Amino acid sequence: MFNFQDATAPSLAAEKMAKKYKTKGYVMDFSLRSLEYEIDKIIYAIEHYQGIESEEILKAECSAYFGVTLCRVYDMNCIGQYFDGTTRTGVNYYSYIIEKNGYQFHPAGIFEYRIPGYYQNYGLFYRYLHFRHYERGNRRFVQPGILATLASL
Predict the structure, then answer these.
(1) pTM (2 decimals)?
(2) Is 147 inside any structural domain?
(3) Assigned domain for 89 exists
(4) 39, 69, 83, 115, 126 from 33: Cα distances, Å
(5) 18: which of 28, 49, 143, 149 fits an S-S bond (Cβ 3.0–4.6 Å)?
(6) Which distant-in-sequence residues (6+ apart) come within 8 Å of 150 by Cβ?
(7) Distance in Å from the first CA to the final CA of the chain
């Protein structure tokens, strides 16, 4: 596992994000409802896209808030390290992993590649929480999303 000395506690980053967006009128209370409705609104707001650096910080913030909320709601543990970009290591939230009963999950997974074009897909994060779509040949399948997986652990 990584052992950088300047890792940030994801809970501190998540609390900072919650405070920042509460002042803007978002309901950031570390509940599933905040994940279902507020994350989409935050990412969809076009004012967040002011360059690559701000996108990376938004991805890092959302990853921390998502992971910490899941840890609180589903009694999960943080086993990876989180870097929010405030240290010399830079933004590296990809190593942030949460775990329960041997199941490991990367909260950054949905944010890593989707945020730059996200504003065209409002509701994407809500759907990600509840549904998983995949195709096999010409057939399209829908299965329960990440929340159902975590609830079954």
Answers:
(1) 0.81
(2) no
(3) yes
(4) 10, 10, 26, 20, 10
(5) 28
(6) 70, 74, 76, 100, 103, 105
(7) 24
Residue 94 DSSP SS3: coil
Domain total for the chain? 1
HEC letters along 36-82:
HHHHHHHHHCHHHCCCHHHHHHHHHHHHHHHHHHHHHHHCCEECCCE
Q: What are 58-98's pLDDT values in tens digits? A: 888 888 899 999 999 999 988 877 665 555 444 556 678 88
Q: How far apart are CA 128 and CA 39, in angstroms?
A: 12
DSSP letter, residue 31: S
Q: Is residue 143 assigned to a domain?
A: no
Tokens 């074009």 locate to 117
